[in-house]
Amino acid sequence: MTEENSLAATAAVPAAEPPSKPLLSWQTAAAIATASVGVGAVLLHAIGSIRHNVFLAQFGMDADLFPKSADWLMLYGFYGVFNRANWGLIFLRQHWYWLPVVWIALGLYLFVLKTPVGEGEPGPITLWLKRKGAWAKRLILSLILSWLAVWVSVVALLLVWLATVFIGVVGETAGLATAESAKEDYAKGCEKSKSKCVILRKGEQTVSNGYVLDSSVSHIVIFDPEERKVHSLAREGAEAIFILKANSND
Fold it and tell me: What is the mean pLDDT of the chain?
C-alpha cells in the first residue's frame, strides 16, 4: 500500500468522539442529597413544634411546660405532614372536577408562553439605540441588570416568606385537626373511645382520671371527659394506671 493510500484510509476513519460527561456527578448528587436531608429535618422539626404548640393550645395548656426532644418533634412533624397529605388526597377525590380545569388552564398558559412572536418593524427604542453610541447601550444594560437584581431580591424574599407560611400552615392545620379529632374521640367516653383512659393515683387516693394529653419529667396533663376540664398535675409520687380495653372477640 502506497503512502497516499495509507493517508486516505486514515482520513476515512472517523475521529473518536470524546466521552460525554454525566450531567450530574456523584459529588454534586451527594451534596444535593445532604442539603435536602438537612432542610427536610429543619422543616419537620419546625412543623412538629408548631403542631405540638397548637394542639396543647386547643386545650388551654402552655406547650413550654412540656419540652420535647428534637427527635420527638421531627417524628411528630412527619406525622403532621402525612396527616395534611392525606387530607389533600381526600380533598382531590371529592373535588376531582378541578383537575381538568387546572390542566387546561396550565396547557393554555404554556401554549401562549411558547408561541413565537414575530420581529416585525423595529420599535422606537431599537432605532434610538442604533443611532446612539456604545454609551447608550451600556446605560440600558446597566439599568436592566440593576432592575433584575432588585427583582431577584424581591422574589427571593417572597420565596422565603412562602416557605415560612407553608411551615406555619402545615403545622397549625395539623395541630388543629389532631385536637379536633381527639376532642371527638374523648367525647365518647372511656368505654367507647379509641384512646386509652388513665387513672392517676397518689398512694391510695385517685387524683384524676381521663386522657393523657401530654407529659414531661415533672408534670402530666389529663383531660377529664366527664368534667370536660384539663388538669395539670405534678408527677412526683403519682402512679398512672392505664385502663385496657377488652378485645372484641373475647
Answer: 78
